[in-house]
Amino acid sequence: MFAIIDIETCGGKFEYRRGHVIEICILIHDGLTVVDKFSTLINPQCYISPTFVRISGITNEMVEGAPTFAQVANKIWEMTKDRIFVAHNVGFDYGFIKEEFASFGAKFKRDTLCTVRLSRKLIPGKKSYSLGNLCESLGIDNSARHRAEGDAVATAKLFDILMQVKSDHPQYKNKGVDELMVRRIDKIKKYILDKLPEECGVYYFLDQEQNIIYIGKSVNAYNRAMSHFNTKEQKGRKMLNDLYNVDFVATGSELIALLLEAEEIKKHKPKYNRQRKADSFTHSIDWFTDEKGIINFKLVDYNESENALMSFTTYFSAREKLESWLDEHTLCLRYCGLTDDEAICFNHQIKKCNGICGEQEEIEMYNKRAKTILENYIFAKPNFVIIDKGKTPGEQSVILIENRHYAGYGYFDSTAQISSPEEFKGLIKKLPITPMRMIW
Q1: Given the residues 20, 29, 88, 146, the one annotated as active site
Q2: Which domains are assigned to the chain?
Q3: Known catalytic residue: 146?
């Protein structure tokens, strides 16, 4: 545990009673996030000069009814006990608090961690390491500068960034940071695994702001999450350092989990799904019928696909598949998008195309061979439902296909008497129309 602290004072030094604490904020950080807060003005029992009123905005009138340090000392003691004292320029904050305790005979001693020193080590080259300049350069919002809570919250955000930098550069060694990283991963692992069941569904990894950073599916979400924590891959470890929470949607059906995962990734575009290029589709083979009535195939970028038969993770695997169809079904290079739209294809010249590109073959004969491919990859009927397992023993799932496109899914009691397509449609959670694509 870490106690991230900021104070405001009415003097630059505590010695000789020239300054006292006039405000304090303590944020308790458990290695995952801030879990507790204490913030209060403090009556210093002395005059606050105009200089320090200008710095903090805290006036003598504001602290008149506030508790004295002695009155909140026990709270400060307990909140910092057995925790690492973290502050920006920790010597200043720690020194004042230590001397405030000493003024009534108490010995305050805590392990400390300075975010100024840590910043210099982990993010070198900055012109200034003041909290204000670091916040500005790192995009940390702090609308309450020189107030204890505003600066403490900003320091906590800086602390999280420094932990991320540390995880990206393991060559940096610091006892406090290393201890934090170990504790954090262990804590988040237990937290995530406690929330995920050993069930089939889709899981969502969330960051500190509850943004979705990764979406996955599995027949056993608990075991799949466990594998994330066992990874040694750098990108995987980086994701764990951003991970703060998890959501889960049970599907029962593995097919629904696969379809829901694809739709959700497309909708949310999570950071770490985008980075896993090897796991994502890059190209598809589309098909269409042109103005002459000829069935065409075309290799396209995955994101530009409109009527895909199959999708692939590389251009080369997609091209290899299309060329295999050319050979097996005596197709034409022109009508597979592999030569100029007006050219007599090279395959016709070497007797591997029957001449559709030169009007030497009837369209009906050419389409007959092309249709044998379509029959293998598109549904025989345009509208139907798929019945699958539900989330509970007494439940079944239903997947709706409309116009040969996946339209949505739903669930129903397995004892229910459903006799018409319209009744099934009433159960469906509608989704944006997305082509069903064969995975290769």
Answers
A1: 146
A2: 2-168 (3.30.420.10), 196-276 (3.40.1440.10), 283-377 (no CATH), 384-439 (no CATH)
A3: yes
